[in-house]
């Protein structure tokens, strides 16, 4: 494996030069950061986007399992026993789950209340059976709402109940707030003619970051762009939010952070690539994210300091997709989604994380 130097490997690709004083001085192999790699998901047709409760006793994730539903459903796993419970209704599409930091309840987005949900399931099955191939594109279904339910999948409650894409939600560390992404403005009648034309051409263009109280009240819009802002997660201290902002043409994305009131929006990466799925390390020292800097379909994991002053460091180097990374609450392990399996389907992978190596590679104390 080729040893990476922080200076000559990165700058030629990014076209952005960091001040020399900010360059990390240590050399590192990508394989130094994750050891003991193992595949977590086995029985699922595909699985991904796993997150942990604050006590590390529970993991929530999305997976395609049933033959009669070609879309993801949400599953909760007891880490100690290995027992898995489906917590979503089983109809329609689901995405973006989260576990409450202290209580026995979960968040996820779902379209199960869409009257056409079953018809859309049947149409997707028919398309697949016909062998029809289509390029990957995320579905900003306007019937996505954010739901809360117990660990048994009962007492489900709609927290948004608004036409438009409401998804990508996560609780704050104290469980009092929820950050999420939405294009609800596009369905409110308040768009200008220019915005309406933009939305018709690109439904993602009107997606912004919102924040609300945990019961769904006091909804506030935090970003004000005409491009996609999404995938928000709170910092370990609950004071900031990290997210991804797409370029106007949708071909590039960069990592940003801001205060939870929307102030002090700060760009963290400048890679001129598709950089997304950012997540804080529990130490609060750095952020991990995925980027296709090395090829359109070759997403790799990178880390960067939370101020964006250091040069990002690569931590995976296998062909294909590596993305949606998340650390365990103690910061000692990492779980992510990868298609490095036969058949190229996305599944969950897990490994031991070297926090000290991460600090050293970014020249952090």
UniProtKB/TrEMBL annotation:
It comes from the Bacteria. It holds the Pfam family PD40. Keywords: Signal. Residues 1-30 form the signal peptide. InterPro entries: 6-blade_b-propeller_TolB-like, WD40. PANTHER family: PROTEIN TOLB, PROTEIN TOLB HOMOLOG. Belongs to the TolB family. This is WD40-like Beta Propeller Repeat.
